[in-house]
Automatic annotation (TrEMBL):
Gene responsible for this protein: Vwa1
Gene3D superfamilies documented for this protein: Immunoglobulins (2.60.40.10)
Main location: secreted
Domain (Fibronectin type-III): residue spans on this chain: 1-89, 91-179
Subcellular location: Secreted, Extracellular space
InterPro entries: ECM_Regulatory_Proteins, FN3_dom, FN3_sf, Ig-like_fold
Pfam families per record: fn3
CDD domains: FN3
One Gene Ontology CC term in the entry: extracellular region
Protein name: VWA1 protein
Keywords: Glycoprotein, Repeat, Secreted, Signal
Length: 183
């Protein structure tokens, strides 16, 4: 049976049983996005092969794949399979700190991606290892961090958690303002 392994956002490896040999024929491989079968690509593969990597594919796309054994000895029916590429895993490319006060600041990040389930905002004073975590829904791209110490530098790390289970992070430093006198 034709099947796929090593699926990424832009490639996958096809594996199939040994039906032909170098002498008895070759394979015609056809593949196209299921939504746009007119964009079919065709490739010829030697009869000696039982695997092939397809690359330069679109992310989060289902491909229809057909492997047609072209044998001069036997008729073999075409083998078909459907493979869906993974979402693109892009890390947050910028983390912005704004509206900094003595006890809070605003953290925002970009880009916002459909493939992200949630963001974790980890923050803690520098130096030190007493970090706290805020969970933010994947549809949002900002949060307010509160209950901070005045005049302190914080390390803020935003981690994107993808549907695939992968995580990508980016950090920034933030400083709180000096508190008002008499507090």
């Amino acid at each position: 049976r034709l099947h796929a392994t090593d699926v990424t956002s832009s490639s996958f490896r096809l594996l199939w049983p040994k039906l032909l040999s170098q002498e008895t024929g070759y394979y015609t491989l056809e593949y196209a996005p299921a939504a746009e079968l007119a964009r079919k690509r065709t490739q010829q593969v030697s009869g000696a092969h039982t695997s092939l990597v397809l690359s330069d594919l679109a992310p989060e796309t289902t491909y229809e794949v057909a492997l047609i054994p072209e044998s001069n000895v036997h008729y073999f029916p075409p083998q078909t399979t459907r493979v869906t590429t993974l979402a693109e895993e892009i890390s947050p490319v910028q983390v912005l700190i704004s509206e900094s006060g003595p006890r809070s600041f605003h953290v925002s990040w970009a880009p916002v991606l459909d493939s992200v389930v949630s963001y974790q905002v980890l923050y803690g004073p520098l130096p030190g290892n007493s970090a706290k975590v805020l969970e933010v829904d994947g549809r949002h791209n900002s949060t307010v961090v509160e209950h901070l110490a005045p005049n302190t530098t914080y390390l803020v790390t935003v981690t994107a958690i993808y549907r695939s289970g992968k995580e990508k992070s980016l950090s920034a430093k933030a400083c709180t303002q000096e508190g008002e006198r008499g507090q």
